Amino acid sequence: IAADKGFVDYLVSNNESPDAILNSIRHLVTKPYVQCVAVKESNSTQLQQNINSLFEQVKSAWFKEQDAIIDRFQGGGRSELNGNKYRKETVNNAFVLLKNLMAKTEMSSALFAGFEFFTKSKLEESLKKDFTLDALDFWTACDDLFQAYQQLQQAYQQQLQALRLQLLSHLRDTLPAQKQQNKIQSYDDVLLNLEQALTGAQGDNLAAVLREQYQAALIDEFQDTDPIQYASFSRIYKQSGLPSFFVGDPKQAIYGFRGADILTYLDAKKEADHSHTLDTNWRSHP
Question: Which single residue of 32, 36, 272, 277 has CA 20 to 30 Å from 6?
Fold first, then answer.
């Protein structure tokens, strides 16, 4: 499906490559327990058409009121503005970009940084005490264009999130078959396959076989557990009467290394029959 040109420009300007989009959802592919909420997308085409119309209004006001606009920023009117909010060098650079924008025949894909300086709302909040803003159509037109542009950027953000979710759904649907065909299995697949087997029709028999083969369990680095892993250990050993030990540091779990889930760790601690804490830091002992 061909993407909207404006959306493509948005992706390019934000360095959103296929690899970047893949990396943004890669960590979710092996987490089937993560529920994704559908994104409500706005009509970016309609918003873009609105922007094109507002851009023409800004240009029209610019050519009518150009002298007064220039005086506000490069003449006597400049002294009425808060110098901390409207620094001379920053405003001069923005003014150059504004002139370049006004010389274009159509709206570019992105407003330049600093366009907000020319909006009515920004100017009014930046006036020094006892001064009022000159009533120019240009300020209001810039305000309308800037707000519409922000709405369009939000719509593109929603489209990007929807694109990520589409990719995630596609990978979840197609990867298992591809891995099976190529005889590939990752560490995450080992956990997922075990969990599916334990909850399947022969789950009770599998759990019994595993208990017979492994009559005790000691799981080190348990702070790195996740819902899938802990569910399997619980299925095998909970209420079995066999000893199982979980050894971990919950302070490490909050960083999410190796898929660690702090909430799963805390749930496991609540369900444990006994809890012990090592109160001496032997790692730092002489």
Answer: 36
- Whole-number Å distance between alpha carbons of 224 and 119: 51
Query: What are the phi and psi torsion angles at 127 (to 5°)?
Result: -70, 145
What phi and psi, each to the nearest 5 degrees, are found at residue 201? -65, -35
Average pLDDT over residues 182-197: 90
The pLDDT of residue 120 is above 70: yes
- pLDDT given at position 252: 78
pLDDT at 1 over 60: no
Token pair in block for residue 39? 């994104």
Query: Coil, strand or helix: which one is 268?
Result: helix
Q: Say which residue the tokens 């899938």 belong to.
A: 228
Identity of the amino acid at 47: L
Secondary structure element (H or E) that encloses residue 110, with its range: none
Packed helices 18-25 and 137-182: angle between N→C axes, nearest 10 degrees: 70
- SS3 (DSSP) at 275: coil
Which two three-digit tokens encode residue 11? Answer: 């992706």
Please tell me the distance from the alpha carbon of residue 85 to that of residue 158, in angstroms, as a whole number: 31
Distance CA 123, CA 119 (A): 6
Cβ contact 83:114 at 8 Å: no
